[in-house]
Each structure stands twice: as C-alpha cells, then as structure tokens.
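Recap from last week: sequence in, structure out.
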Amino acid sequence: MNISFFLKPKVEVSYLYDDCPVRKALDDMLKSGFTAIPVIDHKGYYVGTIGEGDFLRLLLRKKPEEIDRMTVGQVERRVKHRTVSIDARMEDLVDLVTEQNFVPVADGRDMFIGIVTRHDIIAHWKAK
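Predicted structure tokens:
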C-alpha cells in the first residue's frame, strides 16, 4: 500500500520555520496543542522536529533575555524524527510510528510535503 493515502499534506500541518523566534514558537505550540512540531527551512527542506522537552530544557538552561534572542533553529533538539520518502512502503512506517508520533514525509527532491500520523496508521490496521 502506498503511504500517500495517509499523508496529511503540508498545508494541513502545523510546522515552524527554523528562523522563527522561540517565543513565537512556544505560543504556536501552546495554541496547537501538539507536543512536537516539524521544523523546515524557507526552501522547504525538513530540518528536524522540536518538542515540548526541547523547550523545557531551553527554559531551564537559559536566561529569559537569551531566549528572547534565539530562533527555533538554535534550540538543541533531542527528538530525531526520521523521515520517509513519499514512495516508501507501508511496512517502513510501522517501525517508525512505534518510536515517534508522526513521520515526516519528503518528495523526490527531499522537500517536506507533510506527515503521516501514528493515529492514522493504527486506525488503518485496526480496521483490517
């Protein structure tokens, strides 16, 4: 089965740019309710995922005035979400969603095009 069936396209996904100020990113994350959000650059390449724990460690280690000058790209991230290509097999996703809430998906040019969520994969297998 092709994973494009499960793809939540980029236009429907919350994501942050790597040059987004940390304060704005924190506000966006709080509003979205998500615990982790993909980070991309302005060319559209996936550069990582930032999670609640990354922000918590930052808030505990840095002074407020330092945080005010930081961008998302400068935050040390522990979450290392692995990506898959749009032509990946469904079996490739099963292993990844056991370790991460969502799997970032890239096209043939390695551009971020969306995500596949753990919820959608489990719902699919449960319905079988």
